[in-house]
Amino acid sequence: MSIKKLGIVHTTAALVPTFKQLFQQYLPELDTFNIADDSLIKDVMERGELTPGIARRVAAQIACAEQAGAEFVLVTCSSVGAAVEAATPFSSVPILRVDQPMADKAVELGSNIGVIATLPTTLRPTADLIRRRGALTGKQINIVTELCDGAFQAASVGDMEKFDGLIMQSIHKLAEQVDVIVLAQASMARVAAAIPPGSVPVNVLSSPGLAMEYLVKLLGESNRDARLA
Predict the structure, then answer these.
(1) CA-CA distance, 60 to 216, in Å (whole number)?
(2) Per residue in 79-133, pLDDT tens?
């Protein structure tokens, strides 16, 4: 698949610098642009779930990205993953929910999978995705979820030391119970990257890097071949 322009849809502008850096690192030849609408995640949190109205707004943002010339759309919020999947059949361009490659990797690595999130609205969609990706391989998956109370609030006021510490506590708690741990939100990737080698006995996965590796495999080779043609 050869593309030149990729749109990134966020539910928080805080992730824009993270993905800008990742695309510069992994796919610098791509022209990327960002659409950020933090009202989406705020409304999901307020209502405690992804409602049909919010899902329609997610689909509208994806459509905006397509109308802006995106040939591929990446959506970086796990809480709205079901809306991404619902919008996919109505889009003329491919769409990727950021946590799909992470879910596939978790299924590859184990059957007992721990899922950690800082928001309750992210636990259910991430666990559901992992179960469904496991079912596609014929694998029976057992999921242990852990809500990291206080971490989201800490990040909201800029206390990243507390944010990191609370997530690490949850990681150590689950590490003795599961084969692999998934950090459900893209904003948690900083914690996985900072884990000292050998300090946690299981793999700890986060979505941004694995999504980029997936896109490199899907887009990188094709784009390179197109340039050489």
Answers:
(1) 26
(2) 999 999 999 999 999 999 999 999 999 999 999 999 999 999 999 999 999 999 9
Q: Parse the chain into domains and list their residue ranges.
A: 5-98, 100-209
Q: What is the pLDDT of residues 8-56, one digit of tens each?
A: 999 999 999 999 999 999 999 999 999 999 999 999 999 999 999 999 9
Q: Work out the burial of residue 15: count CB atoms within 10 Å of its CB; fewer than 13 is exposed, 13-18 middle, 19 or more buried.
A: buried
- Sign of the torsion formed by the C-alpha atoms of 224, 225, 226 and 228: positive
Are 9 and 62 contacting, i.e. CB atoms less than 8 angstroms apart?
yes
CATH architecture observed for domain 5-98 = 3-Layer(aba) Sandwich (3.40)
Q: Report d(CA 188, CA 167) in Å as an integer.
A: 8
CATH number of 100-209: 3.40.50.1860
